[in-house]
Backbone:
């Protein structure tokens, strides 16, 4: 005779969880880390290939990420601003995770505020960094 077992409890389905900023920040931390690694390695490889390809190929690479013929190249700046935002978001959420690792910040209000602060800090830091770069200082 076979032994009958009680049915095991099921984990809650994703539709049960109420989404909050803390969940988004946790997911974005992983996405920005992976994104910076993948895009960064591709850009670094492209830069090395352009450098090895000679003066003309390096100038073409630089034109994509700077002013070309006196006009702004939006694609290069889009990549630059995106990578900068990813860096600052990853940094801010990493600091938040470090604080959580100490055992602090798990109260609902503090956790939500800390998650929202990562967005505020990363947007502010990205805007400040690019304002400084474009000001010519």
Residues:
């Amino acid at each position: 005779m076979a032994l009958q077992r009680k049915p095991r409890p099921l984990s809650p389905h994703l539709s049960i969880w109420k989404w909050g900023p803390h969940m988004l920040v946790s997911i974005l931390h992983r996405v920005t880390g992976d994104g910076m690694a993948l895009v960064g390695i591709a850009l670094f490889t492209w830069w090395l290939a352009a450098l090895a390809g000679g003066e003309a190929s390096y100038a073409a690479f630089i034109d994509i990420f700077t002013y070309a013929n006196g006009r702004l190249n939006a694609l290069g700046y889009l990549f630059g601003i995106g990578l900068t935002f990813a860096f600052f978001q990853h940094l801010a959420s990493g600091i938040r995770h470090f604080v959580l690792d100490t055992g602090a910040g798990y109260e609902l209000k503090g956790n939500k505020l800390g998650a929202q602060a990562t967005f505020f800090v990363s947007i502010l830091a990205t805007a400040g960094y690019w304002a400084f770069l474009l000001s010519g200082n």
The two ends are 82 Å apart (CA to CA). The chain has a mean pLDDT of 89. Helices lie at 21-53, 55-65, 74-101, 108-135.
